[in-house]
Request: fold
Amino acid sequence: MHSQGSAVEKLDSYRDLIVWQRARDLSLICYRVTSAFPADEKFGLTGQLRRAAVSVCANIAEGYGRFSRPDYLRHLRIAHGSLMEVSVCIELAGSLKMLPPSDHKALDSLHDETSRMLRALIRKLESRSTP
Reply:
């Protein structure tokens, strides 16, 4: 049940999922860039962006650990929703000039890559017949 990519492979952990690795990278970058946000944003955009980014990789991991395709898919869909929340926060931070253009571009790129991979994994799991 737990595979990703074109080849079926044995995965020992959610950490082996490339989409989880990208989501983790996105979280780490979000933490780095938000450390430079204004202090009055600690409970605003800083917290919102950090929570949403962590939610992406946390839900991928939690779904993987459920050992049930419906539960896995549900958590992957939640992760994708959180990823869309990250996108909105990135856009707002950029519009408010809280993100340097290079960070904005890097976050957008990693967000888009993660989103494509997550949607592909969801589609792959949805297309499999129930065991």
